[in-house]
């Protein structure tokens, strides 16, 4: 996986307006949607002939599958997540008629064959993840979704929200007001400048370090 070079590394504003979502491009690992709001609406493709990437007019995550426009929602409430069905949804093979509390490793089947896996890998963070278990994907391919509460952990162990098998340590992304910041005990650089504790991620930021490299892009 490669990266684009930034033509405005030094004149990026020292703030990151925490919009709806971001893309995390991690070299050698994959591409992840980092979603900030409390509720994620999941649905099928948008209107025929309209080119889209991740969302549609009706859903925040639009999957190329036989789904209703707004098929289901996942909502964060404190440290808990709830699945709400607007169309046929099964959680761990049980039909959901209204709303259910999600637990780690829950299998979510939307309609007949679209399967997602819900993960909440550590009790140290209220953030959660969605994995695409079946072959169904948004139009812009993803390796997963992070439903980011306060922090997002990147590292080699399975207790991280994004598992990066060959990384020598952990990088922590965290929210502070309308900003998303980055810190690590590793020696890492952002746009070729050494990262201090609590460096703000700006759209287009390229973070590099020993055996790690990722890019932070705004979606909306």
TrEMBL record:
What is the organism lineage in this UniProt record?
Answer: Bacteria, Pseudomonadati, Planctomycetota, Planctomycetia, Planctomycetales
Q: What is this protein called?
A: FHA domain-containing protein
């Amino acid at each position: 996986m490669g990266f684009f070079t930034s033509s405005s590394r030094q004149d990026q504003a020292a703030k990151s307006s925490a919009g709806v979502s971001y893309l995390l491009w991690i070299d050698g690992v994959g591409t992840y949607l980092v979603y900030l709001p409390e509720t994620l609406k999941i649905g099928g493709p948008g209107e025929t002939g309209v080119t889209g990437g991740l969302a549609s007019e009706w859903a925040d995550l639009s999957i190329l599958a036989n789904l209703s426009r707004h098929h289901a929602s996942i909502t964060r409430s404190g440290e808990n997540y709830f699945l709400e069905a607007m169309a046929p949804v099964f959680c761990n093979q049980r039909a959901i008629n209204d709303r259910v509390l999600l637990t780690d490793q829950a299998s979510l089947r939307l309609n007949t064959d679209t399967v997602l896996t819900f993960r909440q890998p550590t009790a140290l963070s209220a953030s959660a993840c969605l994995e695409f278990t079946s072959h169904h994907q948004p139009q812009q391919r993803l390796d997963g979704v992070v439903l980011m509460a306060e922090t997002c952990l990147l590292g080699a162990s399975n207790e991280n929200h994004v598992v990066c098998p060959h990384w020598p340590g952990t990088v922590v992304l965290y929210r502070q007001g309308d900003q998303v910041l980055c810190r690590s005990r590793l020696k890492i650089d952002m746009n070729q400048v050494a990262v201090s504790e609590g460096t703000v991620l700006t759209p287009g930021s390229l973070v590099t370090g020993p055996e790690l490299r990722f890019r932070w892009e705004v979606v909306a």
